[in-house]
Amino acid sequence: MIRPRGGPALPACVAALRQVHEADGYPAVWPRDPIRFLTPSRTHGAWVAESAAGITAHGALCGADDVAPAAGELAAAVGVPEDRLLVIARLFVVPAARRTGTGRALLTHLVAEARAANAHPVLDVVAGSTPAVTLYESAGWRRITTLKATWTDATGANPALHYYVAPA
User: Fold this and answer.
1) What angle do CA 53, 59, 62 make, to 5 degrees?
2) Hey, what domains does the chain have and what are their CATH numbers?
3) DSSP output for 79-142
4) Tell me: the pLDDT tens digits for 2-23?
5) What burial class does residue 45 get, using C-beta atoms within 10 Å of its C-beta: 0-12 exposed, 13-18 middle, 19+ buried?
6) Dihedral (C-alpha) 16, 22, 24, 29: value to the nearest 10 degrees?
7) pTM for the whole structure
8) How far apart are CA 163 and CA 82, in angstroms?
């Protein structure tokens, strides 16, 4: 089941994020304030996937400043102004729910929510995140550019980020 996240779900979302961080290193550095990490500025909305086991996935839609280095290029690629982009952000699936269709279902839901808001969905992903890249590309997302992140990972490096636009 996919539903709006709501404030009461935030502690369970943080617990799910912790599982993902320990399994995959996402986010690259554990945030000082994980609730703030899950609720970035200009959040348009956030949703969770839930099963009998609890929160299994999370995703949010945010303003284009979440992909600021590439926002102009992404907007040009889909022919809309930057303020009509919504970024799929903070998307993750707990390890136990992977390869069950949960990630694809939540991604599809987020795309539908962006389109319902008359916006075009975009996203970025660390270049080495092969399962996520595979999901996006198999769902028809198109890579527009790859740039160095403005943040550093646990090793102090600025990883490469792939920037994608959703299929029309």
Assistant:
1) 160
2) 2-165 (3.40.630.30)
3) TS-GGGEEEEEEEEE-GGGTTTTHHHHHHHHHHHHHHHTT-EEEEEEETT-HHHHHHHHHTT-E
4) 999 998 999 999 999 999 999 9
5) middle
6) 100
7) 0.94
8) 14
